Each structure stands twice: as structure tokens, then as C-alpha cells.
Amino acid sequence: MADTARAYFDTVFSMAGESGQRARDMAGKVREDLKSGAERLRTDVRSGAEQVRSQGSRTVTDIGRLIRAEVDAGLTRLGVATQTDLDDINLRLEHYEEEIRELRTRLAEAEARAARTPATLTAQRAESPAEPQADEPA
User: Fold this and answer.
1) What is the 3-state secondary structure (H, E, C) of 64-98?
2) Could you read off the pLDDT of 77-107 as tens digits, one per residue?
């Protein structure tokens, strides 16, 4: 279609002579302006579309956060534990389990020391000779 329009355009302006040449030059400039304008418009539209997409993505993320906060608040009012509450409880549980393991280790060490002490005292008494008492006659 562009070729057909160009052919009609050339035919009409070829009849005009010198002014036809000026008209063709002017048409060429207009065509180049339209082409560069279309490229700029295409670039601007792409940039605008990217900005709209980015803003839309941020808006969706913000709406998601607001909805999550409202749902969490509603669940809290109902007395239902949220994921954050469960995470906190799990952390505390792990901490307490570690403390229990540490206390069991310390208890086992204390029991081992207590078991060794009477045996050691008994062994020491058996090794030392009986000393005569001052009351007993020799």
C-alpha cells in the first residue's frame, strides 16, 4: 500500500515540475520525521509500559502485605496462632531443649563425682592401718 501511495504521489508531483521536487523533498522530510517520531513514540511507550508494570508489581506486593497483616490481626483476635507465633514458639522450644541437654550433662557429671567420692574414701580407709585409740590399752 505504501508503494501504491508513493506512486500516486510521484505522479501528481511530477506534473508540477520544480515545485514537485520541493514537494517530494518536503514529503521525504515529513516521512523521516514521522519515522523518527514513531521510533520515539515506540521507545516512550515501552518505557511507560515498563514503569506501569513496575508500579503494578509494587502495588500488588503492597496489597499482599496489607492483606497478610489484616488476616494476622484477625487470627490474633480470634486466638489462632499465626506463623510468626509458631516460629517464636519453635525457637523457644529449641532453646529449652538445649538447656535440658546441658542440665542432664551436668547432672550426670555430678552423679559421677558423687559416686567416686565414697568409693575413694572407703579405699583410703582400707589402705591406712588402724591407729590405736588412746582409750585402749596397748
Assistant:
1) HHHHHHHHHHHHHHHCCCCHHHHHHHHHHHHHHHH
2) 888 887 888 899 999 999 999 999 999 999 9
Measured CA to CA, the distance from residue 111 to residue 18 in angstroms comes to: 118
Contact 45, 38 (CB under 8 A): no
| 9 and 27 Cβ atoms separated by less than 8 Å | yes
Angle CA 40–57–49, to nearest 5: 15
- The cell for 52 is 506501569
Residue 82 identity:
T
Q: Are 84 and 72 in contact (CB under 8 A)?
A: yes
Question: Rounded to two decimals, what is the model's pTM?
Answer: 0.35
The residue whose grid cell reads 519453635 is: 90
Question: Quick check: 127 pLDDT over 50?
Answer: yes
